[in-house]
Amino acid sequence: MERPRVVVYAEASVDGCLTVAPDALLLFGNDRWPCPGDASEALAQIRTIHSPQAMLEGSGSFVLPGAASGPPPPVEGDRSRLYEDHLLNDIARRPGFLGWFVVVDGGGRVRWYYTGEPGREAPGSEGWHLLVLTSRSTPPEYLAYLRKEHVPYLVAGSGRVDLEGALRKLRALLGVECVLCTSPGKLGGALLRAGLVHEINVLWLPIVVGATKTPSLFESSDLEPDEWPTKLSLVSCKTFSGGYTWLRYHVDGAVAEGESA
Ligand SMILES: NC(=O)c1ccc[n+]([C@@H]2O[C@H](COP(=O)([O-])OP(=O)(O)OC[C@H]3O[C@@H](n4cnc5c(N)ncnc54)[C@H](OP(=O)(O)O)[C@@H]3O)[C@@H](O)[C@H]2O)c1
Description:
By secondary structure, the protein is of the alpha/beta class. It has one domain (5-23, 30-66, 82-88, 95-113, 124-251): Dihydrofolate Reductase, subunit A, CATH 3.40.430. Helices cover 15% and strands 22% of the residues. The mean pLDDT is 95.
């Protein structure tokens, strides 16, 4: 099974923060975090360049660390089938379907209103349907909840979601050739450490947060003595009014499967 190309997009302060404080989700914006304005053109251009069939987001964009959602209703009957991939083949054939809004949520923490179902489309994201990445450790109640809400999901890994396995399933089962990851913090860090990232785009905002606990770019474990920083090659640099700078990098050595270096 081949896996898709993974392109990461981040909006970061000059010191690498992804938001203004540990408890400040940007889902609905934040007055202290400057809106890119004209510079949001960067993300539009990245979408045009790569035509991703899937957007990839972490659960941290929707719920704070440690925040508990109320448990879904208990499951009755046979639970074993819940751990089979749940794909709803009619979704991709619907008129106006653009792609999958894929969210890693192995802990089953996020409750969904905007699923992409008719009448439940996120404003501005019409045509993108939710798909959740889970693992064999995800509570069965959550998988039953996703089925009830008509949300497709893939099961990859036995502990945390196996990101490489999930990407391979996205390619093999849904034909996804390019994934645009817009969660460049812990999810971006896990993808990078696993050698799964092909391209990194950072839109640098003209602010400094100056923090130690605020989510930041590519958070991961510290490097072991025999581990090296990931080397990048600059592809392009573009500045926008207001002091925004978009840097586009290729990850050295990253080759999409099926391509030659
Ligand atoms: N400025 C920006 O561009 C930008 C973009 C997006 C979000 N944000 C902000 O950034 C903050 C969230 O960032 P964050 O770093 O805390 O969250 P995050 O990037 O969403 O990272 C957590 C996600 O990564 C997954 N993950 C982490 N390590 C993993 C591993 N080793 N294997 C498999 N999955 C792994 C987690 O899976 P499980 O759920 O299964 O544990 C979870 O889905 C929020 O404030 C949000 O508003 C900023």
